[in-house]
User: What shape does this take?
Amino acid sequence: MCSGSGKRSNSGDLPGSVVAAHLARLVDRAMRAELATTPKPGLVDAVDSGAHRDMCFGTFTRSIDAVAPLFFEIAAIACGETPTPGLFSRTRHVGRSAEAAMFTATGGINTHKGQIFVLVLLTTACAALGAQTVTLPRLRDAVQRMTHGIVDRELAALDAGDGHACRQLTHGEALHRKYGVSGIRGEAETGFPAIFEVAVPVFTATVLAGGTRNDGAVQALLHLMAVVEDTTVLYRGGPQAMETMRRHATVALGLGGIMTGAGRRYLQEMNRHFVNENISPGGCADLLAGTLFVISAVDDPWRWKKPIPGSPAGVPTGHV
Assistant: This one.
């Protein structure tokens, strides 16, 4: 633990405990910002509960209250370490404790399991790299290094029937067996292209063009819906629901998304349709939270003391 051992980070003169505490705060902010992003068709937001009847804004808030503090321990473990699969295995163990805390806080409802996976990876990578070396390319590279071979280790083994007969499959494992998709593990092993190649650039461009941070988040979410293989949608409604999500997101973007009156009206219609069809793009929401965390972690002068090369330059900083 950084705080107990006096362990130093790779962040110049910053103690590891300072970096760990700040990264945990950034996780908390990112999770709350994703929840508050409105409108989010089919998802829980500040207006309604989307396609969910078993959860609401308060359910997610209780989950965040329980989960976010555990990211101090995750960051503390990773401070000053080399980003390897072994390091991710150690921090992922704490992530499973976060999942347990989530289920306790929500009465057994899965609000953030996929989001925890995404944020454990990104937090581990940031803490391992340290302050002056966290750039978008290096962060993505660290994620790829930590997840190298994860699809083969955890999903290909299903095809061989290794070690899974005595337990219930996760949703991701069940979907891999049924449809051959690699889900969030495949996204992670390729370095989160949906975050680094799609959502971060869209968020940045929207804010630089005069949009609010909420506008940037909504636009990023729509772009994610248009391209991501969302296993939550696939699990709830099959390939047809996935195609419906992508089609509606593409239409919304063609109308300008949240940046135009026509786009905003279509987002309301899109939400109604998603509620009726039980479509909830939870995987895209998880990646949006990861996007908001990355932007804060890379472009945060309070923590880094000076501008970092490779940051999304010019994006107004603050609570995302």
Summary: Residues 2-158+173-304 form one domain. The longest helix spans residues 231-254.
